[in-house]
Amino acid sequence: MNIALIAHDVKKEELVNLVIAYRDVFSQHTLFATGATGYKIAEETQLGVVRLRSGPLGGDQQIGALVAQNEIDAVIFLRDPLVALAHEPDVSALLRLCDVQCVPVATNLATAELLVKSLERHDLAWRNIVHRYRLERRSGTEG
């Protein structure tokens, strides 16, 4: 599965710690992350991370585009709810796309851990079935 990891500055350490704690789970998936967050995760965990642009420089929109194309299966976005951000419209658009595409999204550490536990139990395996079905329909090999 493809998992997007995003964290505002004051939440980056929390996200890194989550990935360290569940490294064995995350290592089984393809990780995407915005700029500095991806760098910190890769550096601290030695996991491969597809790094996109920084959130304020378009990274949130890049993740959103992947969500819109159904290329992301889960999003962990640890946000700082106490700070107004210049790129707040991008954040809102990303969260809206997750709702439209039925992509599970966690915006705090508690829900992030629940989402990781679901990944660990393969509770999101239905997304793989949907991906396979759509690929078969596109290629005309539907059984």
Automatic annotation (TrEMBL):
Domain MGS-like: 1-143
UniProt-annotated catalytic positions: 60
A GO CC annotation given for this chain: cytosol
Keyword Thylakoid: no
Keyword tags: Lyase
TM helices/strands, residue ranges: none
PROSITE patterns: METHYLGLYOXAL_SYNTH (PS01335), MGS (PS51855)
The protein, known as: Methylglyoxal synthase
Organism field: Paenibacillus ginsengarvi
